[in-house]
Inverse folding.
């Protein structure tokens, strides 16, 4: 069976959805599928993968032409709604089944209002996003990585496919106790909240380590030590195994991002037996309901109180970490993700035959 995956590749732009697509592609190849990964804005000469990577311009016509050349049995589209409507309309006309994989809550909304843009670009983007949303008329199924999103989709064929993650780690050492924040650094991740929290603990013996690639120039100051604090350290981007190693030695994980899909970093932290303190986003209320840490519900005083409480209570850290690990190790397996996806593909092919 030929399967096309459409998304940026993790070797070009390491983000959550790119990581998941790489895991899925590799596992599908192990199961005997022929996988073609079409990577918009791809710029590597050698991706060195078991599956075929096809780098192309970030252009709707280019993406579509490469899909049509492959003549796949199904397309797994995880590139948000970029160039979505025109592409899937044409694929539907060619009787090629399409699965849309939602990576973010915005993928499921017809109207999206983005912050951080000038007014003209913001208005233009709102209507562009609405047009792309019409592409859902042509897809055969929708997957979500956060189960609570199922209720937000008025679509006949929709399923929950959880993310998967690896536990392997690279050893890491650090002199002082520390907490860790991990994400690509941009507006909606709110890294400034982590730096602000570090200021509250500058003389309390807790270091704050930040990991991630700076995606917006307005955050370049984070990389300048003279502009930050004595207990704040920016480590730059790291590989998944390096992140796992840093998490493994940490006291706990801190999250400040706005609502999205199901952030990989939660899974990584939990698989390293680390509790999470999240400023506002608790996917499916797992952190609060299953006692994996704390959700501060957008309250600054509560957020810093939670950090101090967990820092000073080793027993609570251990209990939360064990709870998180027991759940994550049985839930977020790459094999489980691909089991669900394969069944969906088979159901679609059967219904289309």
């Amino acid at each position: 069976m030929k399967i096309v995956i459409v998304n940026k590749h993790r070797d070009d732009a390491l983000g959550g959805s790119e990581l998941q697509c790489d895991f899925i592609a590799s596992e599908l190849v192990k199961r005997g599928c022929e996988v073609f990964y079409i990577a918009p804005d791809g710029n590597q000469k050698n991706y060195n993968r078991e599956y075929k990577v096809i780098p192309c311009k970030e252009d709707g016509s280019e993406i579509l032409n490469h899909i049509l050349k492959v003549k796949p049995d199904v397309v797994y589209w995880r590139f948000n709604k970029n160039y979505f409507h025109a592409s899937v309309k044409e694929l539907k006309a060619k009787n090629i089944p399409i699965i849309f994989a939602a990576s973010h809550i915005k993928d499921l909304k017809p109207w999206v209002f983005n912050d951080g843009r000038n007014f003209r670009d913001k208005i233009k983007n709102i209507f562009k996003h609405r047009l792309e949303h019409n592409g859902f008329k042509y897809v055969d199924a929708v997957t979500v990585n956060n189960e609570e999103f199922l209720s937000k989709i008025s679509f006949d064929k929709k399923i929950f496919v959880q993310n998967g993650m690896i536990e392997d780690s690279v050893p890491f050492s650090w002199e002082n106790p520390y907490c860790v924040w991990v994400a690509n650094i941009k507006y909606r991740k709110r890294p400034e909240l982590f730096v602000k929290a570090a200021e509250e603990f500058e003389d309390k013996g807790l270091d704050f380590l930040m990991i991630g690639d700076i995606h917006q120039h307005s955050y370049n100051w984070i990389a300048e030590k003279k502009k930050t604090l004595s207990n704040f350290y920016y480590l730059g981007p790291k590989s998944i195994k390096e992140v796992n190693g840093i998490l493994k030695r940490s006291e706990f994980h801190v999250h400040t991002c706005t609502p999205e899909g199901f952030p990989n970093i939660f899974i990584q932290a939990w698989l390293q037996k680390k509790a999470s303190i999240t400023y506002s986003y608790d996917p499916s209320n797992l952190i609060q309901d299953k006692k994996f840490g704390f959700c501060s519900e957008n309250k600054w005083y509560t957020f810093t109180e939670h950090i101090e409480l967990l820092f000073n209570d080793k027993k609570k850290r251990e209990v939360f970490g064990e709870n998180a690990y027991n759940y994550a190790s049985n839930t977020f397996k790459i094999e489980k993700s691909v089991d669900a996806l394969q069944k969906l593909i088979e159901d679609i092919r059967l219904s289309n035959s």
The first helix runs from residue 16 to 30. The longest strand covers residues 34-40. The chain has two domains: 2-164+333-352, 178-331. Residues 145 and 343 are 16 Å apart (CA to CA).
